[in-house]
Structures are given as structure tokens and as C-alpha cells.
Design goal:
Leucine-rich repeat, LRR (right-handed beta-alpha superhelix), five-stranded mixed beta sheet
Length: 436
């Protein structure tokens, strides 16, 4: 049963509600260590007979309707060792209260404010007024602001004081454009920007200008169809890009990933260009091979490592595919320089044979006959009747194989409805005709 949450409006009260009755700590359960984020130990009694708690370093307080910081002195005492604070899905709509909270947590490194109504908050000014809370915000390395619909002004203000920030999550905020800030933030390595409404790569390039040290960029489910001119210039250090569920539908656009100087991994699932839904595993494999051949710098595609044998096979397939094309991708000449002119694959017909050249022996005579193994014994006997001139009820047909492994030579074909393929007939086999 889910834990019942009180109608708390302050973070201080929410902490006491959730963490006031249990003990926290790292517990060893055999080979598995389980961290119980359940609060803790009574250290001493205060004058008002409340408890001082030793809290875990990670606090998760989702859906507590938290609207403000509460007693700041009390909050500072409770949270002096807290490094991660998850306040997703609360009612925080005032930056002043959020700054108060951050100001009381001197060790805070991770701060999750997702799904708080920050669009209702007055945007933060830039630069922020100097306060004691800003000192603690400098320690934050991971900030999550998903589904808050906040203003770009507030983002830029926060970034001016979070110079150690390494991860920023801005998904589900309905951004249709990107507002450039006045400062760059070299330490940011990961930006999660999926499920927004950005269409133009010029806006994406603004993200690169703000975060020149970016190594991972998640753009999943943005309506981007074109990467524009020189898309990699703004991302000199980008190693991983996710364009899954965007609207890229042209090989020319996907080829532009080759222009990112440091790119090693790409995720492009669910884009129109590579959609092979309902076409089978073979089609899916072929479309991956074409992507691997085109994107020569990649080491991983869609979370699957590209091995050297896979790469070579894909590149050779690519050469064969475009060998006779009037218009060839630029990658074709690069691969010709690498592999040379590759011979066409031999065309091998693997269709099972159905006809064989056999012989009939009758009355010291021998006749050639072409036997179709799709026929049955009755149909074979009709062929023989036309050759030897006897009614089918006046003779019997005996089968002998030239294959030395065949076990039943001189076998009477007594079952008229049995199909001939059951007898493993081959070229040179003999049908001997005897009296009925």
C-alpha cells in the first residue's frame, strides 16, 4: 500500500512526516546491499520535545504538496549531510523558496524539481542577487527541471551560479526555440532535451554555443527533420547524440552526423528514414547495414556496438548497392578507396530441384524419362504407360537408386498416392518395369 502523505506545505514538515519514525542506513542482506531511505535516530530532545534526525544522504519527497522551505534553521540542521534531493511533483512555484531550500543544503549535488509549476514563478533575474544560498548552489552538479515549463531567463540565471553543473535535464518543457545566454558553461557534459518542440537545427546549435564541452545530447522526440549546414561546428566534443523519434527522413541529413568531429555513438530509432516496421528482420538488418556503412566514425549505433566484421560487411554491401547507380553518395568514393572495386556476389540458386533425369528398363530395353518429384506414383505410372505401351494395371514399377546409401533398392512403388519426393529420387536412378 502506498504511503499516505499529509497535507504538508513546507519541506521541513514533509521531512519530519516521512523520515520521523524509521531508521536509516546501509543494510547488508547477503551479497546485496539495500539502502533504506527511512529516517533515523533520535540524537537529543529539544525544548519543544521534537526529534533531531540523522537523515540519509538521499532524500526523495515526491507528491508532498511542498510549497515552501519552512523553518530554515531547522531545515539546515536536518539536511546538513544531504547530497541528493528529489522534490519532483510538488507545488513549488516560487524561486525565492527554492533558493532558500538550496541555501540550507551545503553538500547538495543533485536537485530534482521536475513537475513543479515553475511556469507560475516570476522569472529569476540575471545576475542573481548575492545571497548565502548561492554559495551552496555552486556545488550542484546535476539539475533536473523536466516538465516544469520554466522560462529561459530562469535557466540562464541558475547557470550563472552553477558553474560546476555537469548534467542538465530540460525535457518535456514545450520549448519551441532556444534562448541564448550571455555566458558559456564549459563543465556541462550531458544535456537531456527530449520531448520538446524544437524544429530548427539553428536552435540546437545555440545549445552547443552555451555548452561547448557537451559530450551527450539527447534530442529524442523533437520535430527535427533537417540538421542544416555544418551542424557539427557547434559541438566539437560531442560523443553521443540521440535523434530517436525525430523526423529525419533523408539519408543526406543522416550523413551529416559524419561532420561531428568527436561523435562515437548515435541513437536514431524510430525516425522515418529507418522505419521498417512490419518488413521483417532481414529489412531491419539491411537498413542498419546501410547506416553503419554511411556513418564511418561511429563505434555504436542504437546501443549496439559496431564490430569490425559488421562494419566491413556493411561497407561492402554499400559498394555493391551503389556500384551501378547514376547518383552515388559521397561515402561511396571513400569506401572504394578503402576496399577497392569489389566483385559482384555469385548468384546461387538455392531453390530445391524438382525434376531429375532417370531411366526405365523394360523387356531388355532402356528408356530415358524426366521425373518430377512433385508428382505421385499414379502420375509416374501414366508416364511409363505411354512409353512401354502397357495398361497401368498390367505392370509394376520398381525403384532403384544409384545412391549407395539408399537402403531400399528395387522397391515396389505400390502406393499410387504417395509423392515421389519421398523416395529421394536423383539423376540416373532406374525404374524397372515388371509384370503385375
Amino acid at each position: 500500500m502506498a504511503e499516505k502523505k499529509e497535507e504538508d506545505n513546507s519541506l521541513t514538515d514533509a521531512i519530519l512526516t516521512k523520515y520521523g519514525n524509521m531508521e536509516s542506513g546501509l543494510h547488508d542482506m547477503g551479497k546485496v546491499q539495500v539502502y533504506f531511505s527511512a529516517p533515523a535516530k533520535k540524537i537529543q530532545s529539544s525544548k519543544d520535545d521534537t526529534m533531531d534526525l540523522k537523515l540519509p544522504r538521499i532524500l526523495v519527497l515526491n507528491r508532498y504538496k511542498i510549497r515552501n522551505a519552512g523553518n530554515e534553521e531547522r531545515l539546515a540542521e536536518l539536511c546538513k549531510s544531504v547530497t541528493e534531493l528529489d522534490l519532483a511533483e510538488n507545488a513549488l512555484d516560487n524561486w525565492k523558496e527554492i533558493l532558500k531550500i538550496a541555501g540550507q543544503l551545503p553538500r547538495l549535488e543533485f536537485f530534482n524539481l521536475s513537475s513543479n509549476p515553475l511556469h507560475l514563478a516570476t522569472p529569476l533575474a540575471t545576475p542573481l542577487a548575492t545571497t548565502s544560498s548561492l554559495v551552496n548552489m555552486e556545488n550542484i552538479q546535476r539539475l533536473v527541471l523536466n516538465n516544469t515549463k520554466l522560462h529561459w531567463e530562469s535557466i540562464h540565471s541558475l547557470l550563472t551560479v552553477m558553474q560546476r553543473l555537469k548534467e542538465l535535464h530540460l525535457s518535456l518543457n514545450e520549448f519551441s526555440s532556444v534562448s541564448s545566454g550571455d555566458c558559456t558553461h564549459d563543465n556541462l557534459k550531458l544535456l537531456q532535451f527530449n520531448n520538446n518542440q524544437v524544429k530548427e537545427w539553428e536552435d540546437v546549435k545555440k545549445l552547443g554555443a552555451m555548452f561547448p564541452g557537451l559530450e551527450t545530447l539527447i534530442l529524442m522526440a523533437n520535430p527535427i527533420s533537417r540538421l542544416g549546414a555544418s551542424p557539427g561546428e557547434a559541438f566539437p566534443n560531442l560523443k553521443v547524440v540521440c535523434l530517436s523519434e525525430t523526423l529525419v527522413e533523408s539519408w543526406d541529413e543522416l550523413d551529416k552526423l559524419n561532420e561531428f568531429p568527436s561523435l562515437k555513438e548515435a541513437l536514431v530509432k524510430g525516425i522515418p528514414l529507418l522505419c521498417v516496421t512490419g518488413k521483417g528482420d532481414k529489412a531491419e538488418k539491411q537498413i542498419r547495414q546501410l547506416a553503419v556503412a554511411r556513418l564511418g566514425k561511429l563505434e555504436s549505433l542504437n546501443r549496439s556496438v559496431i564490430t569490425e566484421p559488421e562494419r566491413e560487411q556493411a561497407e561492402r554491401l554499400f559498394i555493391r548497392k551503389f556500384r551501378h547507380s547514376d547518383v552515388r553518395p559521397a561515402r561511396y568514393d571513400e569506401l572504394i578507396a578503402k576496399h577497392g572495386h569489389i566483385q559482384e556476389l555469385a548468384k546461387v540458386d538455392l531453390t530445391p530441384r524438382t525434376t531429375f533425369n532417370c531411366k526405365i528398363t523394360y523387356d531388355d530395353s532402356s528408356y530415358d524419362i524426366i521425373v518430377n518429384v512433385k508428382d505421385n506414383v499414379r502420375q509416374l505410372n501414366k508416364q511409363i504407360r505411354a512409353i512401354v505401351g502397357l495398361p497401368t494395371n498390367k505392370f509394376r514399377t520398381y525403384f532403384s537408386s544409384t545412391d549407395p546409401t539408399h537402403l531400399n533398392n528395387n522397391e515396389w512403388l505400390r502406393y499410387p498416392n504417395r509423392f515421389l519426393h519421398n523416395y529421394k529420387i536423383g539423376d540416373g536412378d532406374i525404374f524397372d518395369i515388371g509384370p503385375a
